[in-house]
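Dear V.,

Thank you for sending over the compound details. I've combined the ligand you provided, zinc ion, with the protein sequence from our construct and run the structure prediction for the complex. I'm sharing the raw inputs here so there's no ambiguity about protonation or stereochemistry in the SMILES, which I know was a concern on your side last time.
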Amino acid sequence: MGECIVLHVGEGRWFIIDSCLCPSTKQPIALNYLQSIGVDLSEQVVGILITHWHSDHIEGASTLLKACHNAKLYCSIALLKKEALQLAALYKKDIFADTDKEIREFREIIEFLSETKDRNRFAPVKNRHTFFDYRNTVPTRLVALSPSDVAVTQSMASLAELAEKQGKRRTRNVVPTSENLNAVALHFSFGNFSVLLGSDLEETGNPQTGWSAIFNDQIINELSLPIASLFKVSHHGSETGYHDKIWQELLIESPLSMTTPYTRSSLPTADNINKLQNLSFHFLITKDPQANKRIKRENMVERELRSIAKDRRTINEKMGHIQIRYTSDGALNISGNEHAVKFTTEVL
Ligand SMILES: [Zn+2]
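Below is the predicted structure of the protein with zinc ion bound, written out as structure tokens.
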């Protein structure tokens, strides 16, 4: 479980979107990967974005921030308003159970930034934010499509409510449930090639939040964003992450699409996979969401194991990985490690 995207944004510059830990080394997966391909972390990483505040997208972000000296940290503006900072102050008092990964990570980041006193390293983002717009040999641009203004306001209200509750009892559930509405979906273009990165942005039926807001606010037209041929499917391929218009208006017909599993809720489901496969030329998942559940042992063996081990997990587990390379002649080269799964409608 966990999602991290590293994006080469041209001329040796890299951008990291979300963070998760390698199950074996417990290091941020982006560090391991970028170092393995010879990227100088302190020089070449220009930005780190936490698209939203959930443990499958934030673990290890503070370690990344400390290693990438040149990188600016971006997160949804919802975390930077007065109410959110009040909440951060409460974290210091240890009211919350320290087992909450989101909080540990958030506190690390806030503490690191206040130690460095470098205000320029932290930037809040919402819809229409431009991360960069390089006019190099190949024009390269990254913009935020969400969160919508209404989603930000809603999130403020729920954070304020949480802050009020504090001091009364220790609580685990401090992350507002509307967090996925604050997720930062992105549009990246590199010359004629465009990518839609859906983060965990969901659809609730409210025209002013989620995917609907992107269409209703005319963000695509206003920023003249070209249609994309590659889609990081939002919210681990779930039904709530789906919107007809994404496929009709933001993407070419039968694009290449991919996502990461969220194993705790077995996402994407078989139905989700079927639907996404039919809409795509290829649909890829970094790892089969059912993979760890398929190990069937005899009842007696299972009982014996349960009686001796409180907690069992796979050791030396590797994270699934997909690599997409856009070649100068306009082709897409797809590769992945042994966990990546490809569903295809391609006729051989
Ligand atoms: Zn997620």
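A first observation: The radius of gyration is 20 Å.

Warm regards,
I. M.
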